[in-house]
Amino acid sequence: MTIIDPTDAVPAPRSGDGDKTSPLLEVRDLHVEFKTREGVVRAVNGVNYSVDSGETLAVLGESGSGKSVTAQAIMGILDMPPASIPKGEIRFFGQDMLKMSGEERRKLRGARIAMIFQDALSSLNPVLSVGFQLGEMFRVHQGLSRKQAKAKAIELMDRVKIPAAAARVNDYPHQFSGGMRQRIMIAMALALEPDLIIADEPTTALDVTVQAQVMDLLAELQREYRMGLILITHDLGVVADVADKIAVMYAGRIVETAPVHELYKRPAHPYTRGLLDSIPRLDLKGQDLYAIKGLPPNLLKVPSGCAFNPRCEKAQDICRTDLPPLVPVTERDGTELPGRASACHFWKETIHG
Amino acid sequence: MSEKTIERPTTDEAALAKELEAEEKAAARQASLLKDGWADLRKRPLFILSALVIVCLLALAIAPSLFTARSPFSDGFCQLQNSMNGPSSGHLFGFDVQGCDIYTRTVYGTRNSIVVGVVTTIATTLIGGLLGMLAGLIGGWVDMLLSRITEVFSALPIIIGGLLIMSIWRTGDVWTVSFIMAILGWPQVFRIMRGEVISNKYNDYVMAARALGADSWRIAFRHILPNTLAPVIVITTMNLGVYISAEAALSYLGIGIQSPNISWGLMISDAQDRFLTSPHALLFPAGALSLTVLAFIMLGDVVRDAFDPKMR
Amino acid sequence: MGRYVVRRLLQVIPVVIGVTFIIFCLVFALPGDPIQALAGDKRADPNIAAILRDHYHLNEPLYQQYWHYISGVFTGDLGETYNGRAISDIVSERFPVTLKLGLTAFAIEAVIGIVAGLFSALRKGKFIDNVVLVSTLVLISIPVFVLGSVLQLEFGVNLKITPVAGIERGWPQSYILPAIVLASTSMAYIARLVRTSMTESIRADYVRTAIAKGLPQRRVIGLHALRNSLIPVVTFLGFDLGALMGGAIITERVFNMPGIGGQLAQSVYLRERPVVVGLVTLLVLIYLVANLVVDLMYAVLDPRIRYE
After folding, report:
1. End-to-end C-alpha distance for chain A, whole angstroms
2. What ipTM did this prediction achieve?
3. Judgement on whether residues A230 and A277 belong to the same structural domain of the protein
4. Cα dihedral B176→B181→B184→B190 (10° resolution)
5. Is C234 on the interface with A (CB under 8 A)?
């Protein structure tokens, strides 16, 4: 018996044995706009990043920074219109997904690229049992029968450590706790062992104790399956243990990229520094907590020059007129720091000063 | 002990200030919702259109004699030899079975339709709104009892309940018909009001006001009730058209407004038997009725779009 | 689920008692002598009147009269006319007509309403959406008896596509036009309801999840979005049954159909009080049972209700 694998239609290699030169996913100069009644909102303005198999990229930013919109563009789940992608490429195993047909992209979704959403309660369909929603992945993508799909669903629920999976497979989302629901979301993303998982604030809605469990589970499964992971978050605390590298976004642009520990030690952008300083620290107990002043920019009226300039303590005249490009960051002596870049006119002062 | 007496006024003041602030915010929220709604409403062409039609209808209802030289109550208004004659000059809509001028009767029928619609809507809003408010605010056994009573009344649909009641009381004037429709129609407003009050009761700012020790009546009147206003305005406007239509239906079945009172529904009913041979006697009052209902339904529609925060 | 069913069944009992009591009070407890009313303007024969009074328990205290009435209702005895004909006879003769009319209308309003609403929501702001919006507005505004008369003239008399009136041609020919007329208002409301709830659910997070799972469009809309959008529609259908029955009374009159509604209207006109009460009681009970069914369906559609 041969089951026709619907993913065959997509030419990209399944695991490392093909085009070695291109990364798992590469986003190039991506722009996303939204047409609204008030005007055009430029949510993403030329984002570049890449992820390899087994690698975790954390995308960090406040709400409205464009981090989730970028992710949705990768998934192909933006509502178009009002959204549109005027420019850019999203390459998956070297192939630009923006040039694919709707049907080709649909077959990639869920099977090769999966997404975990923030609020599992609203992201799971309230009127369908979790077993049905998990099994649906196998029924639609692999053509399994209802019965086979259910067996697979139970297996998956076991895999993400949901107790008494067989007994709970017919339960509905509202009957699970928040942590368990998020495990179900993870199970759903893992179902077809995708090459890339995008997790959009996967733990924000959870209790702190549960957050750690869910994050650990996600990291463990990622290692096991050697998946690429894009972790979108506004929480620097979550990132440190899990991520390999970080991209910090502000007003639709990447303002700094760095390997995770370097970023914590020596941020090269005032915004990153502000974020780091606003984490509560035990050794500074009793002092006032730092907070970046001002509000995230209105995307209808992004400040000219560097978008961060009205909130930046280091801002000079040049910051109000010239948009700083993302440039490689080096040591004082010019030694290259691999993977590091900053979009600040004063990155030298920031990292070395 | 002395420390406490010193401290208390300050906390009270702080609490009061906070409470005032919360109240202002709630009031401002409400005011802006209504103001936004109104501003939005004025810009909608459908609103202007329906408002124009309704103004004309009101003029017809208030002063029908301005629109026709004849009076349907004068002697010799109906001439049997004109029975079922079609439209002619001076008698634009033709004559009905009794030989009465349909145009004049249609004009004079406006008042009853509008009065029944308005009176019934006001009555259902008052009864349903008041009871719904009480049920929502007091809760407990009061809520339980009122909700059961509502269920009993909503088990009597308006036409069926109307048939039953009117089979006994056959006065057939505007007030009886309005009264009966109000008795059967209030549960709808009750349910909406009760639901709104209960959902507002647990809103953050109400909880905050409560935590700050504002007394219940103050909370009810300053915080909860203003927020139920928009949905009640919406349902009230929508009901106007519905009740005008229901009155016509009851009159059509012979259990609403009775002759010698004039009602479009009654005129349509009288014209029904000869409709297939001379449709004009039915079509003109039917057109007036449909236009009136359309104007009010359209108004209800735009008002809902403008005021329903969920739609924004 | 079992507990929900039992609880819902228990809740119906006080409503049934309450509504029958109201019906009873309205009709029997109000001043006025039904026997005299029967005689009309003539003076009723005192002997016959006394016999009739005795027969209809009119001399007994109110609560006993109510007891006779309610126990009759629960044993399927809706009473008899003043001419001695059992009302259940009238019902069994006329009910099938109303039932066929009502079910046909119900099917029409559900199918067309849902489909129109769905298209409208999916093509929001486009031509088809505006067509649906305007036509529903018009359908809601035109009273049933006006629409009925106009369609009767057009299709029955002018185009001769359907029978003008009566039920001689049987189902479906004789029923289709009256059913469309009866369904019109509710169909419009359903279309608008589906449009609103569908617009809401296509924007819901779980629909985004369904898309992210790589499900085909058909499945995303038809299963994930529609299933949730139908919940308010089911609630509406429950309430709407009352309007449907009221509408049936009117439609049966327009198309001269020998159903319960026509009988009811006629009995009101002839002041046959027991028939009115019997039929109204029956319709109200049907309404309550249908609402019960709708509530149970609601629980099937929405698991959150079941486990409350």
Report:
1. 67
2. 0.83
3. no
4. -120
5. no
Chain C nearest-CA distance from A41, in A, is 19
Minimum CA–CA partner of C150 in chain B: B283
Domain's final residue, options A243, A272, A307: A243
Q: Measured between CA atoms, how close is C231 to chain A, in angstroms?
A: 10
Range of the structural domain that residue A338 is part of: 248-352
CB B192 within 8 A of CB B232: yes
| Joined tokens for residue B305 | 């779009």
Which residues of chain A register pLDDT less than 50? 1-18
DSSP reduced 3-state for C217: helix
- Closest chain A C-alpha to C225 CA, distance in angstroms: 9
What are the tens digits of pLDDT across the range A219-266? 888 888 888 889 888 877 778 778 888 999 988 888 888 888 888 888
Q: What is the predicted pLDDT for the residue at A2?
A: 42
Q: What is the mean pLDDT of residues B174-200?
A: 87
Q: Which domains does chain B have, with CATH numbers?
A: 34-84+91-311 (1.10.3720.10)
pTM of the model as a whole: 0.81
Contact map slice: C 281-300 vs B, CB within 8 A: 283-284, 287-288
Over range C162-171, report the average pLDDT.
Answer: 76
- pLDDT tens profile C224-238: 898 888 888 888 887
> To probe the interface with A, which of C1, C208, C213 has the most A CB atoms within 10 Å?
C213
Tell whether A109 lies on the interface with C, counting CB pairs under 8 A: yes
Indicate the helix (H) or strand (E) that contains C266: helix C260-270
Reference C264, options C59, C106, C112, C81; nearest CA is C81
**B-contacting residues of C 201-260, CB under 8 Å?**
239, 242-243, 245-247, 249-250, 253-254
